[in-house]
Specification:
Blueprint: E1 6-11, H1 16-31, E2 35-39, H2 40-43, E3 52-54, H3 56-62, E4 65-70, H4 72-82, E5 89-93, H5 108-116, E6 120-134, E7 137-144, E8 147-152, E9 158-164, E10 167-174, E11 176-180, H6 188-191, E12 203-209, E13 219-222, E14 227-231, E15 239-243, E16 246-251, E17 256-271, H7 276-283
Parallel strand pairs: 1-2, 1-4, 2-3, 4-5, 5-17
Antiparallel strand pairs: 6-7, 6-17, 8-11, 8-15, 9-10, 9-14, 11-12, 12-13, 14-17, 15-16
């Protein structure tokens, strides 16, 4: 008997192609005798189903495995919501790159069937917790699998002080700062000139965005480090902070951001034969010869 019996499904319902793949996946799971639980918003766009319906949070309590049909953004959102339940995630790609959702739509029956029969690889990924305080009072709390980003929303630099484990690092004026996990090192941090980090690394990279000094470069530190960012008292930029590109929260002069590793980790499931370097070759066009 499979270790996975209750299967939660989350779909990118604004995409017609994702809904088609979701229906195909549901039909396969029901034929094979698995119990299917649909996330509430997903269920609204899947007509005529007989599956149980649950909130995203409850999926973590009800399910042995959650399958996400969509792009990397859909899986990031699922990871933020479900990490605390330790339920593993499997991705079927209906987005663009698919660094995290690595099963193609035409492989659904084959690859999902293999995973459910116990033929899979499991990776543990850590997330970040971020808190924003203003005048000593908590304003916002968020989490991220990819990155926490402080950034300007206009053509004006943000000024801030950076501390790592209580030690002053620098005062910087730039378009912002990316604080990224290894998972996020192939996302926005990469676009900002940061290094690609293997997902197994226990490390965090800080990538300045267009800093006002040529000597400011990305810094890679231990994953256990804690970060404090103090927005400059004379900062005039309209600055925001985001977690995985979502929940854009405005920050003001004197605000304090604290970022550290989340205590809960996310388990990402891959079919056998998954290879991080092959994923980089295909998704980042390493094979392209000019």
């Amino acid at each position: 008997m499979s270790e996975f019996q209750n299967i939660g499904l989350i779909g990118r319902t604004e995409s017609d192609s994702a809904v088609l793949s979701l229906k195909r996946l549901m039909a396969f799971l029901e034929r094979e005798g698995y119990s299917v639980v649909l996330e509430k918003n997903t269920a609204n766009d899947v007509a005529g189903h007989n599956a149980r319906v649950s909130s995203k949070d409850k999926l973590g309590e009800l399910c042995d495995l959650v399958i996400v049909v969509g792009g990397d953004g859909s899986l990031l959102a699922a990871a933020r919501a479900l990490a605390k339940f330790s339920v593993p995630l499997l991705g079927i790609n209906r987005g663009r790159l698919g660094f995290l959702t690595d099963i193609t739509p035409d492989e659904i029956e084959e690859k999902v069937g293999e995973v459910l029969s116990g033929k899979y690889m499991a990776e543990s990924r850590f997330l970040l917790d971020m808190s924003l305080r203003r005048g000593g009072k908590p304003i916002y709390h968020g989490s991220a699998l990819n990155d926490v980003v402080l950034h300007s929303s206009e053509i004006r630099m943000v000024e801030f002080d950076l501390y790592i484990d209580g030690q002053f690092v620098y005062t910087q004026r730039s378009d912002g700062l990316v604080v990224s996990t290894p998972t996020g090192s192939t996302a926005y941090a990469l676009s900002g000139g940061g290094p690609i980090m293997h997902p197994k690394l226990d490390a965090i990279v800080l990538v300045p965005l267009n800093p006002h000094t040529l000597s400011s470069r990305p810094i890679v530190v231990e994953g256990s480090c804690e970060f404090k960012i103090i927005v400059g008292e004379h900062n005039l930029a309209d600055a925001r902070v985001t977690c995985d590109g979502h929940d854009r929260v405005s920050v003001e002069a004197g605000d304090i951001l604290r970022i550290h590793k989340k205590p809960h980790r996310m388990t990402l499931i891959h079919p056998l034969g998954h290879n991080f370097y092959e994923t980089c070759r295909s998704k980042l066009a390493w094979n392209l010869v000019l």
